[in-house]
Specification:
Number of helices: 11
Strand order of the largest sheet: 3-2-1-8-7-6-5-4
Strand content: 5-15%
Structural class: alpha/beta
Largest sheet: 8 strands, parallel
Radius of gyration: 17 Å
Helix content: 40-55%
Distance between the termini: 15 Å
Bound molecules: 2-phosphoglycolic acid
Shape: globular
Order of helices and strands: EHEHEHEHHEHHEHHEHEH
């Protein structure tokens, strides 16, 4: 059985007080669920969030990390630093990191390797842009992104990988991929992994969908057989909405 996962990516939102308030509200409203629930606050509030959620099932994860173990990289954070405060899962490859911070497939593959080396779990994001979908290249783009960042991994490393398909045109736009579009792509991703590795690995890896998942569309998206959960942006900042999305899974 694959893990069901609902992860909230808070991006650059919520100061210290707001972080504590949202975590308290979320803890109070958390529905009973078999799914893994994760939140990714900003770096400065990770330690606070870890302590706040010490006795909670909610896992605190990071939005990013550098590939180097340490050194002269002003402003960056290493996997070791994350592990040392109890954060052992990291988002890598979010489209905003690719678009605004120049993260190439090559950089991402180094980040994945560095995180795995530290025994961390990687929530790897990828997905096509609007033009690429319009021109019918979305499958090819997604395949290339997977190939370049992940397909050099050995089979065992896949135990530490979670995938998040996030079509760029659906992120923060209010426009969601239809449940059928999500299912079609997720099935394609699984098939691509089967060809590169085997069906055992393909059927075991959780593939989340991300891009304008809201309480009113989550259930339908999550009902698709190859959709194992969601990576949630905007709706993760509102406790009622995030709780409703968790309930939907
Ligand atoms: P959104 O963001 O839910 O606000 O579209 C999703 C994401 O960026 O992971």
């Amino acid at each position: 059985m694959r893990s069901k996962i609902v992860a909230g990516n808070w991006k650059m939102n919520k100061n210290l007080m707001e972080t504590e308030a949202l975590l308290s509200e979320l803890s109070a409203k958390l529905p009973d669920t078999d799914a893994e629930v994760m939140v990714a606050p900003t770096f400065v509030n990770l330690g606070v969030a870890v302590r706040h959620l010490e006795s909670s099932v909610i896992e605190v994860i990071a939005q990013n990390m550098h590939f180097a173990p340490s050194g002269a990289f002003t402003g960056e954070i290493s996997g070791d630093m994350l592990m040392s405060i109890g954060v052992d899962t990291v988002i890598v490859g979010h489209s905003e990191r690719r678009a605004y911070f120049g993260e190439t497939d090559e950089i991402l593959s180094k980040k994945v390797a560095a995180a795995l080396e530290k025994n961390m779990r990687v929530l790897f994001c990828f997905g096509e842009e609007l033009e690429e979908r319009k021109s019918g290249n979305h499958f090819k783009v997604v395949e290339e992104q997977l190939k370049k960042a992940l397909f050099t991994l050995d089979s065992k490393s896949w135990n530490q990988i979670v995938l998040a398909y996030e079509p760029v045109w659906a992120i923060g736009t209010g426009e969601t991929a239809s449940p059928e579009q999500a299912q079609e792509m997720h099935a394609f991703i699984r098939n691509t992994i089967t060809q590169a590795y085997d069906s055992g690995i393909a059927n075991k890896v959780s593939i989340l969908y991300g891009g304008s998942v809201k309480p009113n569309n989550a259930k339908e998206i999550f009902s698709k057989p190859d959709v194992d959960g969601g990576l949630i942006g905007g709706a993760a900042l509102v406790a009622d909405d995030f709780a409703a999305i968790i309930k939907a899974i």
